[in-house]
# Entry
Amino acid sequence: MQSIEEIYPLLSQPRRVAIIMHQKPDADAMGSTLGLSHFLRQLGHQTTVISPTNWADWLKWMPGCDGVIDYEFSTEKAIGVLEQAEWVFCLDFNTMSRTRHMANRLRKLPAVRILIDHHQQPEVECFAYGVSDTAKSSTSEMVYDFIVGSGHADKINKDISECLYAGVMTDTGSFRFPGASAAVHRMVAVLKDTGINHTLIHEHLYDNFLENRLRFTGMVLQSRMEIFYEHNAALIAIPWKDLVRYEIKTGDTEGLVNYPLSIQGIKMAALIIDRDEEVKCSFRSKGSFDVNVFARTYFDGGGHVNAAGGRSTDSLEVTVQRFIQALKENSSQLQ
Ligand code: 5GP
Ligand code: MN
# Structure
């Protein structure tokens, strides 16, 4: 993989560009891809943003989101774009498997693949150019660096700023995590100067749910959370029937995994959800316990030191038992 700077001189020649993100995109995936798309269009490129799956309703306010193609829903259309593309930017994921059903097709495309990402251990052999930096707060920050680094800071307009602000704000836990560096705050000042209303963006993202989601959260915290004080850890395990009963949609479970970390002394939290087609796991930690390694070792996943995810092909019950066993094996590191 060649350095991303190598493509800066090539940006002046307009191309057909596809920009893709990971499945079930969060605000950083959607914000960084749309931010990059708005930027490249100003340089004359023809861009299309593709998501491997659908996305949460609370992302739909983002400028350009109505033009994003859902690969699962509009497969033929997405394939047409991918096969015509000269460049495919891959944002906010480190391994092709994060693009779900798109993965095999992506590997075979004739297009030049370019990576912009902040997750650990990327599949660098899959990309011609790219930047992978785990020290970065968010992929949105990296898109900002890309725009500024390529000499186009003057192109940062309100549409770009709204998208990038949403990504960096959510990936830093509202500027709380260590990744929210001085450079991040300087970037936010630049974004703010384009006229964005950050209060409104927070409302779009955090005050934009239906009643059922709040009632579901209450039920989960009351009935589905187990605390393992001897391991300073907590688990929330949600059966499929709860998702059906509360009409839970994509994005409605986001953030749930963070609640147990607000309990004194808890250093690691897990969320295991039976999504019917698979059992999905999320892990969060405070301090030095590395959930990226934990997710890789036990649950076919990965991510960052303090936030990672994975999956299991076992039933929910068996996955929970495997998690408890894994906790015991890691107990000394959680003390
Ligand atoms: P979440 O728990 O919000 O799904 O994901 C937390 C972090 O772990 C995100 O940065 C996400 O990209 C990463 N992640 C989630 N699931 C997986 C997975 O199955 N494989 C890998 N490699 N990373 C994941
Ligand atoms: Mn991200």
